[in-house]
Amino acid sequence: MMLAAFISRFSDRFLSRWAVLSIDLAIVGATVPIATILRLNFELENLSWRLLISQLLLTMGLYLIGFLLTKSYSGIIRHTGAQDALRILGASAIAFLIGVATVVVFRFVDTGGFTLSLSILVINIFLALVALVGFRFTVKTIFQQVLQGRKLGRTRVLIYGAGASGIITRNTLSQDMTRVYDVVGFIDDHAQKWGKRVDGIPVFPPTILNEEKIADLRVHQLIIAIQRLEGIKKKDIIELGIELGMKVKVVPAIRNWIQGNLTISQIKKVRIEDLLEREPIRLDNENVRNYLQGRSVFVTGAAGSIGSEIARQIMHYSPKRVVFIDQAESPLHDLEVSIRASHPRLSESAEFVIADITHEVRMRQLFAKYKPDTVFHAAAYKHVPMMEAYPFEAVRVNVWGTRCLANLSVEFGVCRFVMVSTDKAVNPTNVMGASKRMAEMYAQSLNANGQSTDFITTRFGNVLGSNGSVIPLFKRQIESGGPLTVTHEDITRYFMTIPEACNLVLEAGAMGKGGEILVFDMGESVKVIDLARKMIRLSGLQPDIDIEIKVTGLRPGEKLYEELLADKESTKPTHHPKIMIASVRAVAEDEVVGMMGELETILKHGNPTEVVRFLKKCVPEFVSNNSEFVSLDKERVNL
């Protein structure tokens, strides 16, 4: 009890390295008489005190040199590891080599009886090595065993990966000061390791991940420590771990370890993004570099989830100047802080401007001042139910704002105008989608007019973690104890990560020739209710037991599934496997010009019903769903 109290009181303090050096020298000094007695075969009558004293002083001096050269005394004893043992081995080797040289010198020099026995030194090397290493590991073991009583509880863990990363993970868990981790086994894909032990811990095949075995082992947590693991296989392991009721965590890539060392805080819980993410993003595209490096670039909606990621990726390609435009002051300020911190050498090339894209005078000033070569237009209202309630704002920003930017791009000779659109523009059932489709039509019409500006539209579905998306909503609902709200049991959505979507936007801008609508490969659609269940399990809870899932009914303008292409549209492949060209219904330029003239008049009056009626006229495939504007579709049928 006294030892436990002493360790608890001084657990956050460490011995001075000079104190450790003194203890090490004392251990070496204690082994010299033992080595001498062993050399004399316990015949103490043959013991020479002169020999013992000279051997003691010289041996300690040799080890002092070895300790100072290897700095073996600088480690923290309670965290002793293989590297500390190697330093002691190095110090012993140095002491032995200098000792051999000393013995040779003493043969030619009269030392007055002051001598060094090589045979005693050899015996002493082994004794000291065992004592020094044993002392450290004994202290470490006592410290850990005593402190286990202070920790919160025991967590039984399986580590997937029995290689170097897995062993480091196990050692990191053992150093956690708050919890006891019992590593009950490693899992490895290599059959040669099955049935063997690593640090006394058994290695199992992947087939151990079944309900019966996990129940027998009483495993609480699965940690994936393999560094090179294919995305699909990693996803399968995570989903299997979740299904078996374990909390699943992932060890980050070695390059992300703090100063090359893994800490317990870096072993993160699996996020839902890890289950939906496909391939890693590589920011090193030569085509993108060719049209961004040394150029002036505008990014509208730069403070939003898509715009801010486009901004960060653009900075990777060393543009001459990037002007980040948004009317949301606080998020724009956050982006500025982030960009200037991550790209200090390029911070002078970044401008952060508060402006409204529908304000033509203000935008003209910016175009005249900065003369952009490329415009990435991500500014838009995207929230479906909100835009259903405020159609005037949807059209004012999404259509009229796009018209303003597109016209100025032509006027000031912008080379490329890359517009971020949405899958909701395909067969739209809501005001937001219809407004984005009309913006697409206007951009295409300008390109058809033979202007020098290439207008390129990108179209993709939901992105994980974006503002207003379902993932942050579910996270907040889980944190508050539920319920999780799903609008329909059968509703499905396409998902991709924000970095992947923005990377493809840059790729599309590089490959576009003008006038295209480029569609991204979104993979397979996901049932939102399944997504909700997975997120609950990732939190260590059980769906419909710990957290309720409540079906609330479709919201205004919402449909069960999203489409990336309209019924009459088809696609053509490009050289990029994830980007296709959509063949869309062409709209004559004079027809679009007429629409904009009519729109200007409608916006002056601001009547929501007239705004939506106008959208339905311009976008014939716009059929409202679960909305007050369904009556306008009936009018159109009757006409």
Radius of gyration: 35 Å
Give the tally of β-strands: 22
* CATH superfamily annotation of the largest domain: NAD(P)-binding Rossmann-like Domain
Name of the top-level CATH class of the largest domain: Alpha Beta
Shape: elongated
Indicate the proportion of strand residues. Answer: 5-15%
Summarize the structure in words.
Helix 2 (17-39) packs across helix 5 and helix 10 (286-292) crosses helix 18 (498-511). Helix content is 48%, strand content 14%. The strands form five sheets. A nine-stranded mixed sheet has the order 10-9-8-11-12-13-18-22-21, sandwiched between helices. With 639 residues, the protein is an alpha/beta fold. The radius of gyration is 35 Å and the shape is elongated. The N and C termini lie far apart (91 Å). The chain folds into three domains: 2-147, no CATH class; 151-270, NAD(P)-binding Rossmann-like Domain (Rossmann fold, 3-Layer(aba) Sandwich), CATH 3.40.50; 288-462 and 496-520 and 568-618, NAD(P)-binding Rossmann-like Domain (Rossmann fold). Mean pLDDT is 83; it is low at 1-12. Helix 12 links the parallel strand 9 (321-326) and strand 10. The chain is built from 22 helices and 22 strands.
